[in-house]
Structure formats: structure tokens, C-alpha cells
Amino acid sequence: MAKILVLGGDGFCGWPTALHLSKAGHELVILDNLSRREIDQELGIQSLTPIRGIEERIAAWEELTNHKIGFRRLTVGKEFDALLEVIEQEEPDAIVHFAEQRAAPYSMKSAVHKRYTVDNNLNATHDVCAAIVESGRDIHLVHLGTMGVYGYGTAGLKIPEGYLSIKVDTPEGEQVETEILYPANPGSIYHMTKTQDALFFQFYAKNDGLRVTDLHQGIVWGTQTPETSMDERLINRFDYDGEYGTVLNRFLVQAAVGHPLTVHGTGGQTRAFIHIRDTVRCIERAISEPPESGARVEIRNQMTETHRLKDLAEMIAERTGAEISFVENPRNEAAENELNVINEKFFGHAIEPTTLEEGLMEEVRDIAARYRDRVDPKMIPATSQWSKT
Length: 389
Ligand code: USQ
Known about the structure:
This protein has helices spanning 14-23, 35-43, 54-65, 80-90, 104-107, 111-135, 189-208, 247-257, 276-288, 309-320, 344-347, 360-370, and strands at 3-7, 27-32, 69-73, 94-97, 140-146, 163-169, 175-181, 211-217, 219-221, 261-264, 270-275, 298-302, 305-308, 324-327.
């Protein structure tokens, strides 16, 4: 069993991951500055689900399972000495890094939000890499990246797991075959920070032999895992607002409160999806399969299925009777795209994915219905504009 630090372990993906790893018998310490809760206050919004404070969450987990989880309040990317001290004291085998601002619309809201996202995300990732090297310890870094690094134009090929084989013509008329990082094509400032993270990892893997796994994850849907549903005090957060709510979860809440489903533009955008239950299982598996020191960054596409947004909206409308509203798209993105993704490293093997068809949409619908009184309809529209014009 491993000792694991979870950076950003109070967030939507971090909290269920911490519980899942703790349940599996690993020794866990969460580092978090609770910035996501502060952003709720800034935006005047609350999680649809009534999430408890971090201390109460951790105490409830210990009461129910006898598993202890440590907690340190710390800003990764600002408090470098404190981060290094935790690494030296705790001597982790692995660090799971979720400590980034993760919403594209929030990152595009204003110059202040762009700068915050760049400052927070890039300094956080770089400090983690530098602190691991400084500690002199052989720690496996597992980072939650995004499918969005590849961009959402129609690629005309199956998107590989991180690396693209290319052939280049030399001046001598020969061909050289090589592999490069798949060209970055970010669609927001947030996604851009993840493409830059990839370069930090590439450098530290090459220069310092840092062992890094970068998980390029699709849009997460669902809210509960077997661990977070054990007790109401462990409930996971659920965002439905225009800044942080992701598309499928938003549609399900909109259906629950009788709001038309807000499809941006034509709904021809195709995106990759994964259920939160699969996120936590993939992370556990990634931790158990570290790359060798000196190897290139291990990149895995963490998604289970792709859907066109219009089809998703129709599927939900059919099941719930909701109306669909095609609203003007606040984003600067292709109106239509095809998306074919290779995801063999997880899903070609042992992990059987949770798909949309499997009834788990009902679980999310139940959550949405149970907490519907907490929905503030004013917060539903997506108001963050990608460009001033
Ligand atoms: N969209 C709608 N209606 C809505 C909200 C969104 O049509 O009410 C559309 C957007 O225009 C976009 C798509 O749905 O075309 C996805 O938007 P999203 O907010 O669900 O997802 P996104 O902004 O891409 O970001 C989310 C997470 C991010 C993660 C990313 C994975 O917030 O942390 O990295 O999904 S991915 O999309 O694969 O890059």
C-alpha cells in the first residue's frame, strides 16, 4: 500500500479520489487551500449538493471506516517551502495533482480570471515538479489533464494517447519517422494551462527522470461514487451554474427544475465523457502502473464515450420531457466536429466503463430532484463570453 498526497483533494474530482484510495488501503494526506469554496462565494453560488466542511468530511470518513485522512491547508504554487516540507515529512510514494482552476468559462470571464488561472495553474504544476526534485525522492506524479489539450476540430484520425507518429521529409529527399507530443490546440485559457503543464512534465521527465502520468480526461458527469454515497456528510459537490457546471450535469439539473436545456449554438459539438466513478478507478490504476524513471511522460486518454451535444440533449429530453433551447454560443469553438479517441490503456483492458445508457443518469436525476430547492435559476445561464465582440 502506498502513501499518497492528493493536491486539491477537497474538489469535485479530488474528494471522491481521496476516499476511493483511502478505502483501497492507501495512506492519504489531502493538501488544499479551499479556493474552490471561495470561488463559490465570489460567484454567489453554492454546490447543488450540501457539501460539508473539509474537517467534517474527514471526521465522518474516519468514523465510518476507521481510515484516517490527513489534511493540510496550503496553496500549491505559492507556498513552496511548506509544500517541500510536507513532501519531506510525509515521504509519499505518489502525488496526485488536481490543484488547478478547472473551469473554462471561469478562466475566460475577465482579464482578472485569465491571470488568476494562468498564475494558479502554471505555478502549481511547476512547484510540484520542482519540489519533488528538490526533495530527492522518487515520487510518481499523477496529473489530471484534459482531452481539451488536443482541441476540438475534426482531426480526421483517431486521437492517440498523447503522442503522434509523424514522417518528415529531409532536404536530402529521405523521410524521418519520429514521435511528437500531439500538437496542442487549447480552446480556453484554462485548457491552455493544461497544454503548458504537459511541457513542464516533458522537461522534468527528461531532465530529472521524474516519473509522470498525465491523464487526459474528458468531461466528467455524475456526482457520487460508492464512497461518497455512504453518508450525507461525504456527499460530493455538484456544479450546475454557467461557470462551473459541465454540460451533461447541467442538462440533468435543468430538466429537474423545468428549465429548457441550454444547447450552445447548433449542438453539433462532439465531446468525450467519463463518469466520476471511472475517474477514481482510472486514477487508482494509474498510480499502480508508474512509468520507469527516465521514461517519457505516460499519457492516457481518460474517457469512455463521445457524444454530440444535440444528441445528449435529445436523449435527456426524451427521458424527462424537458424542452431544448438552442442558445447563442458564448464560446469561440467549432460549431460541429467529429471526435474519435483511442482509450485503450484503461478501457481496452480491465476497467469496464460506466456508460450513459446504464441507468446512472437516474442517479444524477435523483440528486438533482432531491436538491432542486437549492437551485438558483439566475445562475443557470452561461454568461462568460470568449471574445469581446
Ligand atoms: N455547453 C452547452 N451548454 C451548456 C454548457 C456547455 O452546449 O449549458 C457546451 C460547450 O459550449 C462545450 C461543451 O458543452 O461545447 C462542453 O462544455 P463543458 O462546460 O461541459 O466542458 P469544458 O468547458 O470543456 O470543461 C470541462 C471541465 C474541464 C475539463 C473538460 C474536459 O470543466 O475541467 O478539462 O471538461 S474536455 O472538455 O474534454 O476538455
